[in-house]
């Protein structure tokens, strides 16, 4: 006989919906450093720029895998390894509110940009140069001369 469970898939679907709660702000300790994720490498690994000026290959620990989603430009707390300076382990991912609090307390650099807070800057768009003919650059030529120079056979 099959085992009788409690409810169907809709009951299971509702379990992951956690209510918003305020957790205590965690500061770095000895052997830890703040870092910003540069790129995701897959297989639970990523490349992060630590705020002590070193790029490190970081490993997402098993407790966080598949539970906490880490993306590019996220701010994380990494545990440094004594035996490998170029590698570290992800300990904690900070929320955007926690990042703002750390920034205001002076723990993070002021020039840090958080991806969720960035608004679209009109100066960031790519500008394409308009291709011009030599005749258009010449200021002495008039519109009538340009029209007469056009010939359907040249097109």
Automatic annotation (TrEMBL):
<protein>
    <recommendedName>
        <fullName>Eukaryotic translation initiation factor 4C</fullName>
    </recommendedName>
</protein>
<keyword id="KW-0396">Initiation factor</keyword>
<feature type="compositionally biased region" description="Acidic residues">
    <location>
        <begin position="134"/>
        <end position="143"/>
    </location>
</feature>
<comment type="similarity">
    <text>Belongs to the eIF-1A family.</text>
</comment>
<feature type="compositionally biased region" description="Basic and acidic residues">
    <location>
        <begin position="144"/>
        <end position="155"/>
    </location>
</feature>
<feature type="domain" description="S1-like">
    <location>
        <begin position="21"/>
        <end position="95"/>
    </location>
</feature>
<dbReference type="InterPro" id="IPR012340">
    <property type="entry name" value="NA-bd_OB-fold"/>
</dbReference>
<feature type="region of interest" description="Disordered">
    <location>
        <begin position="116"/>
        <end position="155"/>
    </location>
</feature>
<dbReference type="GO" id="GO:0003723">
    <property type="term" value="F:RNA binding"/>
</dbReference>
<dbReference type="Pfam" id="PF01176">
    <property type="entry name" value="eIF-1a"/>
</dbReference>
<comment type="function">
    <text>Seems to be required for maximal rate of protein biosynthesis. Enhances ribosome dissociation into subunits and stabilizes the binding of the initiator Met-tRNA(I) to 40 S ribosomal subunits.</text>
</comment>
<dbReference type="InterPro" id="IPR001253">
    <property type="entry name" value="TIF_eIF-1A"/>
</dbReference>
<dbReference type="GO" id="GO:0003743">
    <property type="term" value="F:translation initiation factor activity"/>
</dbReference>
<keyword id="KW-0648">Protein biosynthesis</keyword>
<dbReference type="InterPro" id="IPR006196">
    <property type="entry name" value="RNA-binding_domain_S1_IF1"/>
</dbReference>
<dbReference type="InterPro" id="IPR018104">
    <property type="entry name" value="TIF_eIF-1A_CS"/>
</dbReference>
